[in-house]
Amino acid sequence: MERVVITEGPEETISLGMEIADELRDGDVVALVGEWGAGKTTLVQGIARGLFVKDVVSSASFILARTYRGKIPLHHLDAYRIESIEEVFEAGLDRYLPPDEGVTVVEWADKIYELIPKGSLWITLEFLDGDRRRITLRRAPR
User: Fold this and answer.
1) Contact 79, 111 (CB under 8 A)
2) What proportion of the chain, given as a percentage, has pLDDT over 90?
3) CB-side exposure of 1: number of CA atoms within 13 Å?
């Protein structure tokens, strides 16, 4: 499955995240790929809103992982600062790939490609012009 969506600004990216959240179930992993500022965290905010998370969702870049409580737990990982796969295991983040409960969304997932489970939803965010983004959703084979 592959789907391409063009969003015209952050609110449309959040709306897409809410739509994605409707399809997520316990144990799912969503892998996000895109440059700085492409909208990865904005998409996570939409997923969180769709999962009825009440907390403010911000970039996890400086803490690597954060769990939010909603309809089901949302584990937000950021692999930007990860320099080796061993660091993921040392930090205990592998327990979220896949999670026993809730869903995991990984920003900069291409840095830990080998640990993303088969069947995960891969989402690539690309700049177009202004606030427009091309967002490609692709379910990896199981």
Assistant:
1) yes
2) 85
3) 8
N-terminal to C-terminal alpha carbon distance within the chain? 12
pLDDT at 61 over 70: no
Q: In what order do the strands lie in the sheet with 2-7?
A: 2-7, 133-139, 121-127, 29-34, 103-107, 74-78, 65-68
Q: Which DSSP string do the residues of 41-76 spell out, in sequence order?
A: HHHHHHHHHHTT--SPP---TTTSEEEE-SSS-EEE
For domain 2-139, is the CATH number 3.40.50.300?
yes
What's the whole-model pTM score?
0.93
In three-state secondary structure terms, 11 is: helix
CA 48 to chain centre: 10
Rounded CA-CA distance 54/139 in Å is: 28
Looking at the DSSP bridge assignments, the partners of residue 123 are 32, 137
